[in-house]
Amino acid sequence: MTEDYEFLTDILDETQVSTTEETLTEHSGDWATLSEWITPEPVEPAVVVYPETTAEVAAVLEAATERDIPVTPYAAGTSLEGNPVPSHGGISMNLTKMNAVLDVRPEDFQIDVEPGVMGPDIVEAAGKHGLFFPPLPSSGDISTIGGMIANAASGMQTVKYGEVADWVLELEVVLADGSVITTGSKAPKTSAGYNLRDLFVGSEGTLGIVTRATLELAGRPAQIRGGRAIFETLDDATAAVTDVVTAGVDVAKIELMDTQSARISNAYTGADLPDTPMVFLEFHADHSIEEEIEFCRSVIESHGPLAFETAGEEEMDKLWEARKELAYALSEYDPDLQPLHAGDVTVPISEYGPTIEYAKTQANETGLLVPCFGHAGDGNVHYAVLVDPEDDAEVERGKEVYAALVDRAIAVGGTATGEHGVGRGKREYLVDEHGEDTVEAMRAIKRALDPTDTLNPGKIFPETTTGERVREHTETT
Ligand SMILES: Cc1cc2nc3c(=O)[nH]c(=O)nc-3n(C[C@H](O)[C@H](O)[C@H](O)COP(=O)(O)OP(=O)(O)OC[C@H]3O[C@@H](n4cnc5c(N)ncnc54)[C@H](O)[C@@H]3O)c2cc1C
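That is the input. Now the predicted structure with flavin-adenine dinucleotide docked in place:
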């Protein structure tokens, strides 16, 4: 460790500070950066610290800001847009040692947790009281609550229960200068002052470091059932999804897989299913679930499905297998093809079908495979553009398809990213989506809370694609 960083061992125990090559490499990227060939660009921090208390987080931040050293929060590193990559080096602050469930108050449907708590810990602590945390993302088993809050994550159950953001009541946050603030309330609602809590949700560690969160919980539904509908055409499948949502069917999950995704997944699982679009459903209720399923059946059957099956909780995994195995199926599909990084555009529900149609047109015109799937009820289209990494022209065509889908989502009033955040990967779309004035308002907030751009520099803002920090942009404009 260079002299510049020796101050850290005055604040933390030596065991909480690491400069081993293995640790630096591990903190140089996230899931996409370290595992995808297309946007590697890992950046090693100079040092990794493992604080265990809010006071330690505050002391490190205060000292780093005084010395003009960048600090990038790092949790489980499962981001997909380079969000926790320490783009400007400096300190990577790993929050996973702050992993205590502090309190569960079942009578208030609340849980207090430290930021490094993982999804399964919340499931277990809440489950003891017959409660659960509905918005966990699909990566809930491998990611932390701090990372979920910072990335404004959401999961398959958003269509019924909302996003992580909707279940955060109160946050303790350490700002760049080391001050510790609490924002939000343990009351179910508040209108007292600016809603700073929601400002920190989705700020990707650029405004403050979350050191404690009070989350809302829900009662576990007494009845859970699964469903799967198979369609002949994509039009029928997307129209059925839109109708189920707009008719007000009470679904807890509704996921779509297009023909290409079905073919890839069926080949992987060996399932005896047609290679045609499928819709996967889950229903939650405390009573009368069969009535809701019949309502859903009537809507789906008006779109002529080849099959519509339902199952109890025990058999649901089998019904959902094709969807659950899709991520693995995609990665193993063809050794000569690799996916460009994961798309997660999200559009108003009426644009859901047309967006997937557009993706298919792009695929046909370019001769590329673009399997589409995702959290259909939220208008969230996940897509993978598969290309041969050895073929430069094909890679360029793939990037154009990827970008065309983002551009179209924004043009129809949607967003470049429904759940993965901006990180490094989506910065170039921020102005297109929000307009320059809105992005300038975001910069003003960043400068107010973190004038030295200590926290996670090089993320979210478009100018940082050229390597500048937000304050440098301020100085030159
Ligand atoms: C297989 C797979 C499936 C996925 N599925 C989903 C999905 O369904 N829905 C979804 O939304 N996402 C999904 N993701 C993306 C990712 O898992 C989520 O964004 C997750 O919430 C990131 O959490 P993490 O603990 O890994 O955080 P990290 O990746 O380590 O960090 C995420 C961001 O938060 C910041 N940060 C971390 N901790 C703190 C803190 N305490 N305070 C302030 N900032 C902090 C970091 O600087 C970084 O910017 C998936 C990823 C994978 C690999």
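The chain has a mean pLDDT of 94.
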